Amino acid sequence: MKLTRHNETYSTERPCTQVHNLIFGEMYIEHTGVMTTKQICEDGTVNKFVLNFKKTGWSKSTQDDVEG
Q1: Of 23, 30, 50, 61, which sits most exposed with the smallest number of CB within 10 A?
Q2: All structural domains of the chain with their residue ranges
Q3: Is the pTM of this model over 0.70?
Q4: Sorting pLDDT into bands at 50, 70 and 90, what band is 59?
Q5: H or E segment and range at residue 64
């Protein structure tokens, strides 16, 4: 994606997406893994943003946990 007003370019690598309980139980979507976004400015500076989506455990205590 390019923001022409600020002359910046963004690129994103998405995490894995899984759909759970398609047949039985309450269906929900879970994102797991790393999402990386890079910002390239007009002066050539590159900024990198990294988020780590944690997998939900059996007890669901880590559901929706994100580090970054």
Answers
A1: 23
A2: 2-53
A3: no
A4: low
A5: none
